[in-house]
Specification:
- With 212 residues, the protein is mostly helical.
- It is built from six helices and no strands.
- The chain has helices spanning 9-38, 45-66, 74-93, 107-116, 119-138, 150-211.
- α1 (9-38) runs antiparallel to α6 (150-211), α2 packs antiparallel against α3 and α4 (107-116) runs parallel beside α6.
- It is elongated and about 90 Å long.
- The protein starts with 8 loop residues before the first helix and ends with a helix.
- The relative contact order is 0.11.
């Protein structure tokens, strides 16, 4: 799909981020549908759906941007991650804040930043995610509770924690594996380039010797 794009590491990473965001948007829509049809609670649907729509619009713009040959910079990739953090924070704010089991998804943008960006961006992302988590400890719209059905609520919460862990594990593993593959491909390309340069030097040396 992106075969004509620049093959720089950051371009490949932006492609992966684009795919991850598609997965996140699909998972959010599925979660909304499950909550709406299976759990009888009232949440700020308008605000939360608006966030997902904005994320989808951002991904559309990212898709258009990926078909341009402009180089991807560190600051551009960091800003893409930052938008994802702000969107996640907004969704969590309207759905229980730090009590939401999906709070652990803050680890994903931090891991991606650590794997792809210079250390200073990673530390800035760490400060931002810690700040967002801390804010959500004290400021959020709580989810409505059915006090007559605590067991069901606890089961849903534990299931959400499990799902968040599984998603984080799979996505982190996938991203790191792809990063490792990119590094191996780059090393192979560098090795081939060195061999090609060595052969050229040998040919030039033989030509010089023959001319002498």
């Amino acid at each position: 799909m992106f075969s004509d794009l620049s093959q720089s590491p950051l371009s490949k990473n932006l492609q992966r981020l684009f795919l991850l965001r598609n997965i996140a948007i699909s998972a959010q829509c599925l979660t909304f549908a499950l909550v709406y049809w299976t759990i009888d609670i009232v949440i700020p649907w308008t605000q939360m759906i608006s966030v997902v729509v904005l994320l989808a619009l951002l991904n559309l713009l990212t898709w258009i941007r990926l078909h341009r040959k402009w180089p991807v910079s560190h600051i551009e990739f960091f800003l893409q991650l930052l938008i994802d953090v702000l969107a996640l924070s907004t969704l969590l704010y309207f759905s229980g804040g730090s009590t939401n089991p999906f709070i652990s998804l803050y680890l994903l943008p931090l891991t991606i930043a650590a794997a792809t960006l210079p250390w200073r961006y990673t530390w800035v992302m760490a400060i931002i995610t810690i700040g967002c988590y801390t804010f959500l400890l004290f400021n959020y719209i709580p989810l409505p509770h059915d006090h007559n059905n605590h067991l069901t609520e606890f089961t849903v919460h534990v299931s959400g924690m499990w799902l968040a862990f599984v998603l984080s594990t799979v996505i982190i593993a996938w991203f790191v594996v792809r990063m490792s593959a990119s590094i191996r491909d780059r090393d192979q390309d560098l090795a081939k380039a060195r061999e090609h340069a060595l052969r050229n030097e040998q040919i030039i040396a033989l030509g010089t010797l023959a001319a002498g």
